[in-house]
Design goal:
Keywords: 4Fe-4S, GTP-binding, Iron, Iron-sulfur, Lyase, Metal-binding, Molybdenum cofactor biosynthesis, Nucleotide-binding, S-adenosyl-L-methionine. This protein is α/β, with parallel strands linked by helices and 315 residues long. The protein has ten helices and twelve strands. It has a twelve-stranded mixed sheet. A hairpin with an 8-residue loop joins strand 11 and strand 12. Helix 3 packs parallel to helix 5. The structure holds S-adenosylmethionine (SAM). The site of S-adenosylmethionine (SAM) has 22 residues, from strand 3, strand 5 and helix 10.
């Protein structure tokens, strides 16, 4: 549906849990997370998704927390996979458990997958996330074998932590069917407020004149994409701070505690729980009016800081 600023809101992110096994230095939640028992049920998520699709949502991303921690994740993806109107159904995962799930997710209807990977060095990966790089690499192989393509590797760059690995990540696109995207650190979560840690993507692009700009894969895509001659994958830059894409923003978020958040960079949220009790007409009305009133833009550059980490909001 079209919001008050004329944007076509057609993309829903469902954060199905705030639980995560990783403790990424810039993302871990210092505040209490939504306990498992208070998370929306699979049936609630599917009802919300159905209503959102009736309002014009055509793409859904399942995220978290770590979505693969939900025991009913195949049921959730399977239910979403049966919504015929959807043109895209994807997931963002840290891939710690992807190797065992990739095939099942594909069969359940997942079309493609994004994988978060902030370092290609075993020790550093462990330091940044507390997880094991080996699991991620096995997860990527499993996703390729399950045809969850194109696979996007998301890298959040933190100055002095992993910014010396940009070219190693770009090299991954040479022989692998992987698109790599560099994401600017946002003022969300524990480290994101420190501007000195943020790398402006323009710096990275300017230093690599061999990157050739290519058209976005779909309209409303947040990344600016580039290719290197002879490489299989693309290199993308997601720059919410240096190049805000609010004018084209097409998304809303529903979180595992039932809150609907129309803008990542604005703390306003509304609970869907009362409407879930009331019925689908009430649910449709609250989602419709929240979409219509979606804020015009975020104010990351004006000292905004999110009261919640990305773990809770769903990246
Ligand atoms: N557990 C899943 C994962 O790791 O992909 C999904 C949730 S995670 C919160 C989603 C993405 O948000 C990850 O790629 C993470 O790096 C990113 N993220 C978290 N905090 C961020 C921040 N302050 N700025 C930019 N990206 C952030």
């Amino acid at each position: 549906m079209i919001d008050q600023y004329g944007r076509n809101i057609n993309y829903l992110r469902l954060s199905v849990t705030e639980r995560c096994t990783l403790r990424c230095v810039y993302c871990r939640a210092d505040e209490g997370i939504c306990p498992k028992a208070a998370e929306l049920s699979c049936a609630d998520f599917l009802r919300i998704a159905r209503v959102c699709v009736d309002l014009g949502i055509r793409r859904i991303r399942v995220t978290g927390g770590e979505p693969l921690l939900r025991k009913d994740i195949l049921e959730i993806v399977g239910g979403l996979g049966q919504i015929e109107e959807l043109v895209d159904l994807t997931m963002t995962t840290n891939a710690q458990y992807l190797a065992e799930h990739a095939e099942g997710l594909k069969k359940a209807g997942l079309k493609r997958i994004n994988i978060s990977l902030d370092s290609l060095r075993e020790d550093r990966y462990r330091q940044i996330t507390g997880g094991e790089l080996k699991n991620v690499l096995e997860g990527i192989d499993a996703a390729v074998n399950a045809d969850l393509l194109p696979i996007k590797i998301n890298v959040v760059l933190v100055r002095g932590v992993n910014d010396d690995e940009v070219d190693d990540f770009i090299a991954l696109t040479r022989d692998n069917p992987l698109d790599v995207r560099m994401i600017e650190l946002m003022p969300v979560g524990v480290l994101g407020q420190d501007e000195s840690l943020r790398i402006n993507n323009d710096e990275l692009i300017a230093a690599r004149p061999y990157l050739q700009p290519v058209a976005p894969s779909y309209s409303g895509q947040p990344s600016r994409d580039y290719k290197i001659t002879g490489h299989q994958g693309r290199v993308g830059f997601i720059s919410p701070i240096s190049h805000s894409f609010c004018a084209d923003c097409n998304r809303i978020r529903v979180m595992s505690d039932g809150m609907l958040r129309p803008c990542l960079g604005n703390n306003a949220e509304i609970s869907l729980k009362p409407a879930l009790q009331e019925g689908d007409d009430a649910l449709l009305e609250v989602i419709r009016s929240t979409i219509f009133n979606k804020p015009m833009r975020h104010h990351f550059e004006k000292g905004f800081s999110s009261e919640k980490s990305m773990l809770k909001i769903g990246g």
